[in-house]
Amino acid sequence: MADLIPYDDRDGDIWYNGALVPWRDAKLHVLSHGLHYASCVFEGERVYDGRIFKVEEHTQRLLDSADALGFEIPYSRETLVEASKLVVDRLGIGDGYVRPVAWRGAEMMGVSAQHNTIHVAIAAWAWPAYFGEDAVTRGIKLKTARWRRPAPDTAPVKAKCAGLYMICTLSKHEAEREGCHDALMLDWRGQVSEATGANIFLVQDGVIHTPSPDCFLDGITRRTVIELAEERGYEVIERAIMPDEIPKSDEIFLTGTAAEVTPVGAIDEHNFQVGPVTRTLMADYATTVRARD
């Protein structure tokens, strides 16, 4: 761990409330509402060859997430898109990651925060494969989590908000302690939902199946990969999937901005091959994200 560079002690600039500021000066107060009550939304965007993939869609989701949490980001989508591009250019990022984040400030401390200032920051950094190159080649290992995705009437499940990721961190930490890369999360009904930060697909007899996104994010990468699969002539079915279908699958893979298209080599005691459907979609996605208009 000694070679890790802390995210609060780096060179460069971060876009903070409308202006570029030195990285180490982009701070918030310890009594910010976003820290204490999770009134915070964020995005994750990939940079390929200096360009942010689907930045407009990610930015709109950030605005929609804030709306779901009852606050308005004080910048237009166009301003946020240009700010993201500015940060990438300023830091000279070729391949990397962009993290826009918006949160309620410190004017009111309590559950209610009607009059708190909304702050926005955008940071970017170079970032390699999320699970590591070897894991992507051989397939990652998942462990079924004991925490479950909440029902739609218990949380703003369509928002990419900080509070919903607490159970993801707990689940991923437990999986890592047992030698796994990530966790498979079920929903409150016991149905397969997703990994801790990526959507899941099962290939059965050449048909691609994926859970209906009724209690988790319908990921931008997820939608992109579905389009690529259909262009290839694969049938894609969105439906309820129970855990007992996992061992009946020929291939399993994850999709996400950070994960991209990542094959799954094992879930609990069940093993899978990195098969032709997964390999095809990995290649198609890699081509798509670097394509020039």
Structural class: alpha+beta
- Helical segment count: 7
Q: How many β-strand runs?
A: 16
What's the CATH C level of the largest domain? Alpha Beta
CATH superfamily of the largest domain: D-amino Acid Aminotransferase, subunit A, domain 2
Mean pLDDT: 95
CATH topology of the largest domain: D-amino Acid Aminotransferase, Chain A, domain 2
| End-to-end CA span | 41 Å
Tell me the Rg in angstroms: 19 Å
The coarse overall form would be globular
Question: In the residues, how many domains can be counted?
Answer: 2
* Major sheet size, sense and barrel closure: 9 strands, mixed
- Give the helices and strands as they follow along the chain: EEHEEEHHEEHEHEEEEHEEEEH
Poorly predicted parts? none
Description:
A hairpin with a 2-residue loop joins strand 11 and strand 12 (207-211). The longest helix has 15 residues, at 77-91. The chain has 7 helices and 16 strands. The chain is of the alpha+beta class and 293 residues long. The strands form 2 sheets. Strands 8, 9, 10, 11, 12, 13, 14, 15 and 16 form a 9-stranded mixed sheet that branches. It starts with 12 loop residues before the first strand and ends with a helix. The protein folds into 2 domains: 13-126, D-amino Acid Aminotransferase, Chain A, domain 1, CATH 3.30.470; 133-289, D-amino Acid Aminotransferase, subunit A, domain 2 (D-amino Acid Aminotransferase, Chain A, domain 2), CATH 3.20.10. The chain is globular, with a radius of gyration of 19 Å. Helix 2 packs across helix 3 (77-91).
